[in-house]
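Re-running the complex after MR caught last week's input typo. The corrected sequence lines follow. Everything else is unchanged.
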Amino acid sequence: MTRQILRVNPIACEAHGMCAELLPELIGEDPWGYPIVAPGPVPDELLPLARRAVAACPTLALLLSDAD
Amino acid sequence: MTAGAIRAAGPAGRAFPPPHGLPRLIPPRAPLQLGEHIDRYGPMPFRGTGGRGGRRQPADLISETERSGLTGRGGAGFPTGRKMRTVAENGRRTGALRGQAGTVVVANGAESEPASAKDRLLLTRAPHLVLDGLALAAEAVGATRGYLSVHEGQDELALQLTAMIGERDHYDQNRVPIRVVTVPRGYVSSQETALISQLNGGAAKPAFVPPRPFQKGAHGRPTLVQNVETLAHLALIGRFGAGWFRALGPAHGPAAGSALITVSGAVTRPGVYEIALGMPIGDLIQRAGGPSEPPQAILAGGYFGGWLPYGPALNVPISDAGLRSAGAALGPGVLIVLPASACGLAETAWIAGYLAGQSAGQCGPCVNGLPALADMIARLAFGRPDRETYDWAQDLLGLVTRRGACALPDGTASFVASSLRTFGDELRQHSVAGPCVRVRRRPVLPAPGHSWEALR
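Corrected-run output:
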């Protein structure tokens, strides 16, 4: 199975903070509330939570995609 | 030269010897008219008209460019041949799917690096080399249209180029329709994805990637964006080959050919110099007449580059690999000599403030992080630096890096980081004794539109 990574579209992101709330295991916040995503592929056990965080983003700025 | 002569010029008529040594791109009496240009360099190859015998296919230029080792001269230094091949392949793929072939080529002459003057010089002194390169690249990657971008306010240049393109059309020298477009002034407005965004009817602001321009760019087509100097080299590689191109440049390593370098700051003869890549910085400074006053450091690669202390910098070879291992970059080919009479920290604060003001305002970490970073550097330069300010500045470098859509936050961070390394002694002196008197002089580094009064 292809490994998946989380990316933020920084133009679309408006720092709502939903992702950091739903997936604190992989997403922190900078001093201005913008997400900082842990590098590397999303561990299998966190994939359901990652998908939930992606779906919850109000601006669709969080993306889960195949690692290159 | 008459129309007939332009059409007739070919291998049967006479041989066109390749330029020997330097300069290659901008000779002292650069041919400005199309006739003079063809008379000097010969007709454009790859249509059974030129080259050293035999008919070569347009796509052969891609292999030739790969063999040449030519890299982009706009700042990023990506291998030109590989980029061309990717655009050509993507064009074939999407063409088949969408029932229409056709890629796009953009010649980027919108020079946004404030201390760079080479693109403007090239477009003024050797425009037909750039236009030949654009035509050849377009043909090689299967483009159906081309653009040449310059900055807003360069109206005279835009008109001249438009007239030249019209003349070339008349003599069938463009190979695809080419249009001149103007982009707003600004550090990030001529970034690849910003150019594409503008060509697609949007604002000249960087876009989130992927899709990258070589996948899906102008008009949704795979798009090749190349700096105008890169295209001028391509025009000569097309005529004289990869071996000729590689005859200049370091014997080892990936760097090859010549490059235009803009030298400014405390040198006797500032200007644009064409050098063989690999030349030590010190040799170029000598060609520019040597320092005009006692020097202390060199900024190499522009504002996404880095500072080098003057003495050790002199032996550093001017190539991307050479400059990177020293802590700077080739960037768009910019060297600025900082005189000892200036304060490196104040100059850095000045430019950090300028770059923060160049944000397109799209990405949170850039919008918030760059002004905060500029503020901390200003405190280090103009106040009495303390540990807390320094640590916060260091944290901010990490907080902005790789978190924007374009390279502005990353470039600003690496520029500031190199300043803190190079002017470490200065920093310690400021922290002990307060700011030096030199912080009060007008900055050496150019920052168009940025207010010195606001900083102090």
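None of the earlier attempt is carried over here. DSSP finds 18 helices and nine strands in chain B. Chain B has a mean pLDDT of 91.
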